[in-house]
Amino acid sequence: MNDPIMTDMRSEYSKSLIQVGHENSNVVVLGADTTDSLKTSGFGKQFPDRFFNVGIAEANLVTMSAGLAVSGKISFASTYAIFLPGRAVDQIRNNIAYPSPPGKKGLNVKLVTSHGGLSVGPDGGSHQQIEDIAIMRVIPNFRVFIPADTIAVSKLTNLMASEYGPFYMRMARSKTPLVHSESQEFKIGKGITVRDGSDCTIAACGITVRMALEAAEMLEQDGISCRVLDMFSIKPIDGEILEKAARETGCIVTTEEHNIFGGMGSAVAESVSESYPVPIKRIGAQDMFGESARDAEIPLLLEKHGITSFNMAKQAKELRSKKI
Amino acid sequence: MGLNYYQIKKNILRARKLVIKATNTAGSGHPGGSFSMAEILGCLFNKHLKFDPQNPQWEDRDRLVLSKGHAAPGLFSNMAVAGYFPESEIETLRKFGSKLQGHPDLKCPGVEFCGGSLGTGLSYSVGIALAAKIDSKDHHVYTIIGDGESDEGQVWEAAMTASKYKVDNLTAFLDRNFIQQDSYTEKIMPLDEKLESDDITEMWKDASRWKTGDKWRSFGWNVLEIDGHRVEQIDAAITKANATKGVPTIIISRTIKGKSLEHMEDNPQWHGKAPDSDVVPIINSELDSQFLIAPSIIAGDMSNLESEVKRCVTGRSDLIHLDVMDGQFVPTKTFDHNKIKELRPLTVIPFDTHLMINDPVKHVKDYIDAGSDIVTVHAEVTDESSFGEIHDTLKQNQVGVGFAINPDTELPEWSHKFLSTLDQIIVMSVVPGKSGQKYIEETHSKMARLNSILNQHNFSGCIEADGGVNIDNIGSVFADGARAFVGGGAIIGQQDVRAAIKDFRNAVLKSRRRMLLDKANQLGGSDLVNKWIGLHVIGAKQEEIKKIAKEAGYL
Predict the structure, then answer these.
(1) Residue B228 contacts by C-beta under 8 Å, 6 or more apart in sequence?
(2) Helix or strand or coil: residue A77?
(3) Distance (Å, rounded) from C-alpha A51 to C-alpha A25?
(4) Based on the domain organization, do A226 and A158 belong to the same domain?
(5) Nearest residue of A to residue B67 by CA position?
(6) What CATH number does the domain containing A300 carry?
(7) Can you give the residue range of the structural domain that contains A288?
(8) Contact with chain B for residue A102, Cβ under 8 A
(9) Best of B108, B111, B124 to disrupt the A interface by mutation (most A CBs within 10 Å)?
(10) How does strand B484-487 pair with strand B141-146?
(11) Subunit contact A91:B158, Cβ cutoff 8 A
(12) Burial class (CB in 10 A: 0-12, 13-18, 19+), A189
């Protein structure tokens, strides 16, 4: 594969917020003393009356977003992943997801975080959120996204602004390789086949989509045709694309920067086991916390948890032998 | 807009009864915290809150956020009284399929906030208030927070944020009832100072121990501190809060958990427990028997009525009775509306203006303008037409309507049609215009006659006993049906007005306790009498009630 073009999700998020802010005057943005880091402060400069920095007070951040939303605003609340689902789950559940105005499900709040997963790097295990998908997907009315690149970030930010209801979107800290084209469509509950294949499937999300594509290339050299899915929409999950992959390729490897319990891999397993059971292997944090790693060492940290192209290819090969 | 204090109190009583009905039917729920905020919600719903029960989503409505969500029965009851849904629906509380969930929920149109998880309502309210500012809307956000939930750090996160963003369109009430689920707040997590004994009245007695207001002030809030069961204080505080610009306001309302029912008051057990069915009728009688003490200042120094008003304030009277005499209807002359206007700024305690003057219809507007909260005119100087005019003028100005009869006057036939909308009837038990007279004993039998007429004509106001009422006879006057008591010499004539009022209250309380015991005995014999006594576990109440029961031969 060619060397990837690396782009910054937070910059893209900032740009998209300003765009939706111009298009819709009901968009408001809230932050919790991480607005320069998340780059939401750009929105604040454009729309000072619609931007609120509540300080290091995530519970307040979440509930205030709900108060604004119940009054007709479209709230985007952002900080690091570790401090939102990891810290304010009660407020997320009881103030955003649960309150349902007549005919609606939940309030119109978009929780968008950065610094998801292990690739946070140097800040260490205390800052590496590997539980957020499990937490967020178990809460009724929430929809959960993990974008693979900045094109996804931009399109999903626009989608969330126009679609009523609570959403959670988790971005990565570091620059991410572009995997999608500008013309790629993103629909709620629809996975994307980023590479077709017939012998096995790797279902990925976030930064692991590019790794999965690299694994597919390795497999191709061994004569194995590997399908790669970007399961950016973890909830709702695309049962159709998964059933098709199960039927047509017979086994599925999942891969994510999240605990293997409760994450995207679990969501895939739940779906496939009900539609067309095939062998599944989940790659991700093996129920253990992360640790510090300088930027250049992040691949080592990921490797410790088996999150490498090489391991994906290896697991896919092994899984083929278990096909029913 | 809004109702007069008498009508507000009537609606508060209705709401309290619905709380009892709701929690009793549900078999669970939180009456204690519903009652501590009853006057706050009553004052909001019946006077200040802009809303439309037919259009709960009306964009310009004020928002009421009940952060202490467990007091849902209190909120739902007020909504029922306000017409959001039929009062009978209150019996679906906490039941499967009901919109009246165990905690406030958007499922019920008109509810603004899903409560339950404590400490979040203020943040939510700040969000609503900021949205209103963005949209240049002038509706107001009122938020009720509990003192127990103030343990939550998020309350203080929101407090800082409200201050930072200057959300002056937000007014919070702290329902400071000193009790949370486990015990007294000052034992679990002191907001004021640590409570050493089990007597929470200790906290009430000593203002130097109150630190809660200081906390909020230091967070940049405008702080008003009031007695949260006095409608006039709540009313005045809301008006002040709404006029305060640039900062949010918190009205720290000292309240009593379970207020209005002796066995629930200040009793942590009633945080989250429903009353049993057999005691509900006794509870309703107790709720119907709230009473007011109204010192008459003309019994004091006529040359310094300002000082007499101040004595009523320190004495914590419920009303201040103002006897206006013109020297014609009665031989004596006291003062007129000009004096009342001068006295008005001294206190927010309601002025109970009793016009003993000829041609009251000509003067009633003056007494409204002077700041009377109720104006009572005499049967002897009105007729159907003039009283009708007085009645309508008072109602239009949100002033209470009173009607008085002298000792030798019976209620005139023509007045019957007004009875259902009257706020007060004064039954004179002395001949007006002379001081120092004795209570005319014939009044007792007159009260019996009167009660039957009043019942027939759906009178739901208050009977005020005026003349010769003292510590020895007040119990029997209460038993006759009077619920407001004018005290002349027996209160204002005493050195210590506060002690005299307290003695009045205790004497009424004793008579009321007897009445409730009679009711218990009549409904369920000695079993129910014993059960009723057994409910009164706080302080010396139980022993006192036992003594009364023994005297009555029930034990």
Answers:
(1) B36, B37, B39, B40, B173, B175, B176, B234, B253, B254, B255
(2) strand
(3) 12
(4) no
(5) A95
(6) 3.40.50.920
(7) 192-320
(8) yes
(9) B124
(10) unpaired
(11) no
(12) middle
* DSSP assignment letter at B324: E
Is B439:B430 a contact under the CB 8 Å cutoff?
yes
Query: What is the set of active-site residues of A?
Result: 58
∠ CA B308-B312-B317 to the nearest 5 degrees? 155
Report which residue type is found at B350.
P
Contact A64 B154 (CB under 8 A): no
A202 and A153, same structural domain? no
- Half-sphere exposure of A245 toward its Cβ, with a 13 Å CA cutoff? 34
Judge: B123–A69 Cβ closer than 8 Å, yes or no. no
Torsion-angle region of residue A223: left (phi > 0), alpha (psi -120 to 50) or beta? left
A96 Cβ under 8 Å from any chain B Cβ: no
Instruction: Verify that A207 and A76 share a domain, yes or no.
Output: no
Q: How close B127 gets to chain A, by Cα (Å)?
A: 4
Question: Does A251 lie in the same domain as A170?
Answer: no
Q: Residue A57's closest chain B neighbor by CA?
A: B157
* 3-class secondary structure per residue, A47-59: CHHHEEECCCCHH
What is the token pair recorded at B454? 């009043």
Contact between residue A292 and residue A128 where contact means Cβ atoms under 8 Å apart: no
Average pLDDT, chain B: 96
Residues A129 and A242 reside in one and the same domain: no
Q: Is the pLDDT of residue B201 over 80?
A: no
A71 close to B (CB below 8 A) = yes
- Residue in the structure block whose two tokens are 């690299």: A214
- CATH for A135: 3.40.50.970
| CA-closest candidate to residue A254, choices A287, A231, A226, A223 | A231
- When divided into structural domains, chain A yields a total of 2
B67, B101, B123, best to mutate vs chain A, most A CBs in 10 Å: B123
Three-state DSSP state, B224 = strand
Of B133, B134, B161, the CB nearest to A60: B161
Nearest chain A residue to B158 by CA: give it: A60
Query: What type of residue is A257?
Result: E
The beta-strand segments (E) located in B279-368 are: 292-295, 320-325, 351-356
What pLDDT, on the 0 to 100 scale, is given for residue B210?
86
What percentage of residues in chain B have a pLDDT greater than 90? 92
Amino acid at A10: R
| Residue closest to B352 by CA, chosen among B316, B319, B378 | B319
Cis amide bond preceding A236, omega within 30: yes
Domain architecture of chain B: domains with CATH: 5-272 (3.40.50.970), 290-496 (3.20.20.70)
Instruction: Map residue B402 onto helix, strand or coil.
Output: strand
- Together in a domain, A125 and A92: yes
Helix (H, G, I), strand (E, B) or coil at A143: strand
Nearest to A63 among B106, B109, B124 (CB): B124
Q: What is the structure's pLDDT at B13?
A: 98
pLDDT per position as a tens digit, B402-452:
999 999 999 999 999 999 999 999 999 999 987 778 999 999 999 999 999
pLDDT at B436: 74
Residue whose structure tokens are 């800290």: A173
Q: Which of A65, A68, A94 sits opposite B116 (nearest CB)?
A: A94
Q: Which two tokens stand for residue B101?
A: 């969930």
Domain annotation covers residue A82: yes
